[in-house]
Design a protein that fits this description.
Length: 146
């Protein structure tokens, strides 16, 4: 039944955006961590998403194959560390300060993280709306037979 594939696609989007919000929350929580368990400052993490592509070709080919389409959607490809430069701050009294008095702070920009969180939240809401609309269409289709 093809309507289930729409629900699976929305579900994959919900799962991916929830993980993205979790990673963003972790970044914000660790924005001031100068020493992790391996002794280095925390590095910002990013979620890499990719599409689940079950067909290729032109739009017409995809339309012709709709009866055989399996659920597509989105998947988490990986979680990667942002390799941008750490932020040096002069604080000679800090326990992690180097011999010049600089402390390396994480490369987390909380304003950027909040923007990313809003984006992930909106994408999550869009997937919920799509899921609910599909569910409503299914229910209406079931009422036709009455």
């Amino acid at each position: 039944m093809n309507f289930l594939s729409s629900l699976n696609i929305s579900g994959s989007g919900l799962t991916a955006q929830k993980l993205r919000m979790d990673v963003i929350s972790q970044n914000i929580a660790n924005a001031g961590v100068t020493r992790t368990e391996n002794g280095t400052p925390y590095r910002r993490k990013m979620v890499v998403l990719s599409s689940i592509n079950n067909g290729s070709g032109s739009f017409r080919n995809i339309l012709d194959q709709t009866a055989a389409v399996k659920a597509g959607g989105v998947q988490v490809r990986s979680i990667v560390e942002d390799r941008s430069a750490l932020i040096p701050v002069y604080d000679p009294n800090h326990p992690d300060a180097d011999e010049e008095g600089n402390v390396m702070l994480p490369n987390v920009n909380t304003a950027q993280e909040m923007i990313d969180m809003m984006s992930a939240s909106r994408a999550y809401e869009a997937n919920v709306t799509t899921f609910n609309a599909t569910k409503a269409m299914i229910l209406k289709a079931l009422e036709i037979g009455r």
